[in-house]
Structures are given as structure tokens and as C-alpha cells.
Write a structure and sequence with these properties.
Blueprint (H helix, E strand, L loop, with lengths): L3 E2 L3 E2 L14 E9 L5 E8 L2 E8 L11 E6 L4 E10 L8 E13 L1 H4 L9 H19 L7 E2 L6 H11 L5 H10 L3 E2 L2 E3 L8 H7 L5 H7 L2 H8 L2 E7 L3 E7 L11 E6 L5 E2 L10 H25 L1 E4 L5 E8 L8 E6 L1
Parallel strand pairs: 3-17, 8-16
Antiparallel strand pairs: 1-2, 3-6, 4-5, 4-7, 7-8, 9-10, 10-11, 11-12, 12-13, 13-14, 14-15, 17-18
Helix pairs in contact: 2-4, 2-8
């Protein structure tokens, strides 16, 4: 899937958004990333107050356990890391050490993201509110970086009914609501499937993605082809290759009788999307994960690169914070980024 940060570090679908009411603080799980064999002695501060310390005498990598945890309040304004990291001399390298401090401004995305959980509104209305709020947020904080969010035309009920007759089963209620209010939403080159293009996923991969029949036959087993024919693609990512959100209607064995949402690509059969508690995601959870990956993560990268800002979301229960410590940059370099 194309939504990745820091080169080869993949976005973890198990850290997708949790649902619930607006929270005053998000629990931060800090993961330092540094060369193997390096030692670390750091303090992490929020608004000048120490929140946790990271002391390790051996190398830390991206797969390591959480180094420390702390609560990040919605009103927090700055995040800093100070101390030192380095490695002793060995047969293969000279001793090296980096010492100093980096300070980043904090910016809360909760005022936008929590609109997806607004009570008393249809899902389509919530998405429309999210799009408008995200646009305002971008213009206020990253005016030179349009998000590419575009609503389509609302879809008439009879066209939705026709799509469901073609499939032989009902589309997700929230997906239908979104089609009725904002139509086929686009995020840059990526797009919600137009209602007239709703068909079984096998047909969509042939006609909409342009995958050759030979490739479909060679890359997917008979059982995988059967799953594709029994499901439909609701969203397409356009990158180096094509990927998408696949919906398989209930009952499914993988999700205990519930519907199943998976991320698939032209290269593989995809992975089941699950919430942090291990439950299979519903449509709202899966689509929020998409919006975070294509909107919040993209905006976070722009803010970090241009303004030294760390974007976080205080409406989340937990977020992972990656702390990348760079040996090559002197005297001290630490990149801080929330993993969306």
C-alpha cells in the first residue's frame, strides 16, 4: 500500500483510528529508531516539562517495544527531545556521539477528525463536514499544500439500487449515505468508486484498474478469485500500482459473521483491516483509516518538512510517535512524527 512514512516503514493498520467521544488527551507511545548498536539517553518534554526518559544501552529499531508512554493534552504547544545518543568504538566503526535538543511545535487535528463521529448526522453529512473543515485547516496551516479533497455529485437512490441489484447484496449503509451526500469523493488521484462502476471486485480490477485477464488468472488462486467475485471495491488508490478497499458482505468467517474490509492491490490479495482492539473494522473505521492515511498523514508530512510541526489527534485513544535519531546529521538530529 502507498501510505508509508520514513521510507520502508509501513503504516500499521492496527493503529487505525478508534471511535468515541472527543478526548482531552491522547496516549502517546514513543518508539525511538536509531542505528543498531547505539546507546540512547534522552528526555522527552511537552511544553518544557519532562514526560518520560529513554535510556538504552543497546540498539533500538522500529520493531522494538514502546520505549515510554505519556499523555499529550489537547492544549499542548511544543514537544522536545534532549540528551545524547551514539555508539562506542568497535572493529567496524569509530566512536560517534550526538548531543543536543530539538523542539517541534504541536498542532491538534481533533477539531477536524472528530467530525467523522458527530452525533445526530448521517455518515455522508459527517464526511461533508470533514472535507470542509480539512480544507479550512489546510488553508490556515499549510496554505501552499492543497489536500486535493473534492466532493462529487450526490447520487440518486435508483442508481444505488441498480448497483446493489448488480451485486446481489446490499452496500454498506454508511457508503450509501456518503454516495447520497458527497458522491464519489476524491483525494488527489485517489477516489471513492463511482456508483455506476460498482461491480464485483474481479470485474472492477479488469475494467477499472486495467489488470490483464492473464495476470488475474496467474496472480490469484481459484479461491482468491472466488473471494473477489463475492466482494466489491469501494475505493481506489492510484500510486506506483493500484490498490483499494475491498468490501465482502456478511456473513464472513474471518469477522465472526460480520462484513469484512480488506486492503488489496494488484500485487497481492490484501490484508484484513482491524481496529486496535482486534475487531474487524466497520465501514466508518475503514474509511477513517483511509482519510488519515491520505489526508492527515500527507498534511503531517508537509507541516513537518516546512514548519517543524508535529500533527497529532487528541480525539484518539492512542497514537504512536516515532523518534528517528540520525547518525549522519551533526551535532544532533531527531525527527518526530506521529504514525497515522
Amino acid at each position: 500500500m502507498g501510505m508509508t512514512r520514513w521510507g520502508g516503514i509501513a503504516l500499521c493498520i492496527a493503529l487505525a483510528a478508534t471511535h468515541g467521544t472527543f478526548a482531552r488527551a491522547v496516549g502517546i507511545e514513543l518508539h525511538p529508531i536509531v542505528d543498531a548498536g547505539a546507546s540512547v539517553d534522552l528526555e522527552v518534554l511537552v511544553d518544557g516539562r519532562v514526560q518520560c526518559t529513554v535510556k538504552k544501552e543497546s540498539g533500538i529499531d522500529a520493531s522494538a517495544q514502546t520505549a515510554c508512554r505519556f499523555d499529550l493534552l489537547a492544549q499542548a504547544r511544543s514537544l522536545s527531545v534532549r540528551g545524547q545518543y551514539g555508539a562506542a568504538a568497535s572493529a567496524s566503526q569509530r566512536r560517534w556521539s550526538r548531543k543536543g535538543e530539538v523542539i517541534a511545535n504541536l498542532l491538534d487535528f481533533a477539531a477536524v477528525s472528530r467530525l467523522l463521529d458527530s452525533p445526530g448526522k448521517s455518515y455522508g453529512e459527517r464526511v461533508a463536514d470533514f472535507v470542509a473543515a480539512a480544507d479550512r485547516f489546510q488553508r490556515a496551516h499549510a496554505p501552499d499544500h492543497p489536500l486535493g479533497l473534492e466532493v462529487g455529485k450526490p447520487v440518486a437512490a435508483e442508481r444505488i439500487d441498480a448497483a446493489q441489484r448488480r451485486l446481489g447484496y446490499a452496500l454498506p449503509e454508511d457508503f450509501v449515505s456518503m454516495q447520497r451526500v458527497v458522491g464519489a469523493l476524491r483525494v488527489g488521484d485517489h477516489y471513492v468508486m463511482a456508483i455506476d462502476d460498482i461491480a464485483d471486485a474481479y470485474t472492477q480490477m479488469l475494467k477499472n484498474w486495467g489488470t490483464p485477464e492473464e495476470a488475474m488468472q496467474s496472480d490469484y488462486s481459484a479461491s482468491e478469485q472466488a473471494v473477489l467475485r463475492a466482494s466489491t471495491l469501494l475505493f481506489t488508490e492510484v500510486g506506483d500500482g493500484l490498490g483499494g478497499l475491498r468490501y465482502r458482505p456478511p456473513p464472513t468467517k474471518a469477522c465472526g459473521g460480520r462484513a469484512a474490509y480488506s486492503w488489496i492491490s494488484q500485487e497481492n490479495g490484501g490484508g484484513l483491516l482491524k481496529a486496535p482492539n482486534g475487531d474487524c473494522m466497520d465501514f466508518a473505521g475503514a474509511f477513517r483509516w483511509l482519510l488519515e492515511g491520505f489526508v492527515a498523514d500527507d498534511l503531517a508530512s508537509e507541516l513537518a518538512d516546512d514548519g517543524g510541526v508535529v500533527l497529532f489527534d487528541s480525539s484518539r485513544a492512542v497514537q504512536r510517535l516515532d523518534l528517528r535519531l540520525d547518525r549522519e546529521a551533526a551535532p544532533f538530529h531527531a525527527d518526530l512524527s506521529i504514525r497515522w
